[in-house]
Fold this sequence. Notes:
40% of the residues lie in helices and 17% in strands. By secondary structure, the protein is α/β, with parallel strands linked by helices. Strand 13 (332-333) and strand 14 (339-343) form a beta hairpin. Helix 1 (30-43) packs across helix 9 and helix 7 (225-239) packs across helix 8.
Amino acid sequence: MPWPTIRGEERGVGLKTIAVLTSGGDAPGMNAAIWAVVKVAASRGINVVGVERGYDGLVDGVFRPLTRAVMSSGNLAPAPGIDGMAGSGGTLLGTTRCRRFYDPQGRREACRQLTMAGIDGLIAIGGNGTLAGAHLFAEECGSVPVIGIPASIDNDIGCTADAIGVDTALNTIIDACDRISDTARSHHRAFIVEVMGRRSGYLAMAASVAAAADAVLLPELDRSEEETITSVEKIIRQSFDAGRDKRRVLIIKAEGVSITATDLADRVHERLSDHPDVDIRATVLGHVVRGGRPSYHDRMVAGRLALGAVNSLAEGGHDQMVAWSTTTDGGERTDDPRVSIFPLDIVLEETEALLDGSSDITKRRVLRMQSVQGVLAL
Ligand code: F6P
């Protein structure tokens, strides 16, 4: 079957039914985004169907209505079960990391499922993998316009200052670090706390100052294992020096720094054999950071990005991502001064540059972290 297609100028005209999905790692605020898509679309007479379990559900055509017609007025309203979900963590639609969507055959089947279900627009909420999939799909399946909404705790998506979920994840990390600090101070201990983020050190970097950490270990600093061990040894020696009244050392390590938190603690411990009383512990926060009720900021960003996404589909937008950004280099402004819209290929290019260290944003982050390392350790 050839890829079905529609002419660009016909997009958005008479939009009747749109689909929304969440894919990849869940992020707090995804439900707030789904809820806002439903409310905005319903208010304009556009039906919304939810795709279960991300791109897997798209390939298998597993859809469920998220709007329903109100008997008395005929107006659309959110379907039962949606109400009250905006404040919950995770994703009510479920999510997967779908291997079949990497394959053109899988994407072709997804396109066929959407077309058969009479869906004339798709909103994909997720991180890098989700947006890369959305771009391929948008290029191939010309009959269904696609708009992405950035949601990932890693904050590693190009063109957007914030992705949905980052603020909540940071609050969780800070809360966990405060708790760890309470027990660390009681015992005069050093803690190495590992936080998620995949290849990005953003969460570790942003949490370090707010949690009053003594050091932060980021993949972007590009240190060898030996350099990492030596720097941690130095910080701990310095901190627990006789004459210092320091009761705890907190080191935040990003997941992307290849040595594990436990190995790092053990290796540093070996080097501190002249300080047998120094106790170093490792804690991996892991998925704790991905769960929980979304913060005000994440709900607010989710709502405004969702509004931008529905507007964009209604205006004929395609192969784009709505971004929490006041700069529009390569993108366009929307009616909301904090929301811009960018072509997905530009977003993906910028994402790669963020991760390989070539983007100015990453370079600035590294410089900033290098300049505060000495201050953190005081
Ligand atoms: O992308 C979000 C994220 O939580 C990363 O920080 C982490 O590396 C990854 O997902 C873990 O994924 P999973 O839950 O599939 O193991």
